[in-house]
Amino acid sequence: TAASDGNHLCLFDKTQNRGTFDTVKKTNYELEFAHGVVWDKKRQILWALGLRQIKAFKYIKNPSPELVLVENIDLPAKDFNGHDLYPIPDKDLLFITGEKSVCVFDPESKKIFTACNEENLKSISQLNGEIIVLRPEISWYSQTVRFANGKVAATQKNAKFYKARWLAANTFSE
User: Which stretches does DSSP call E strand in the chain?
Assistant: First the structure.
């Protein structure tokens, strides 16, 4: 999991389940403003998005689960402030959102390309060419999920949506 308020990733050891969240064995890994994690089944890497970097971790299962940092990749700008990391369907690419733009990360070349200059998106998700985004309207949340063209996809009075996703298969991770 990513914990932005604790500036870390948290790896839970489900083999040592002691019944509750507070008692399960867990290990924290420092990542400033941790906001997203995606498992890359092809490369066997956990990509983790933070304030200024994407970090690549190898997952070691035995003798006990751990993450080993293998690479740091800088985001396009020091004030990018990463918010979302999410696979693009049927592509070997990941969306990245931040305060300044939406980018595409190529895990093979480890390059980041600016897709558009949409600012302050908390999330992005695509299905069959339709993209939904979440931009906060009140502090960090919104009552409305929108299509990329700005039209309303869904709204719920008094909701506090932070991230929105299409319900779809994730071939990047599965």
Answer: 2-3, 8-12, 26-30, 36-40, 45-49, 53-60, 66-74, 84-87, 94-97, 102-106, 111-116, 123-127, 130-134, 144-147, 152-155
Distance CA 65, CA 51 (A): 25
Can you give the pTM of this predicted structure? 0.92
Instruction: Using pLDDT thresholds of 50, 70 and 90, give the confidence band for residue 23.
Output: low
Instruction: State how far Cα 168 lies from the chain centre.
Output: 16
Q: Residue 18: pLDDT band by 50, 70, 90 thresholds?
A: low
With H, G, I as helix, E, B as strand and everything else as coil, classify residue 15.
helix
- Cis previous bond, 63, omega within 30: yes
**Which tokens go with 92?**
């070997």
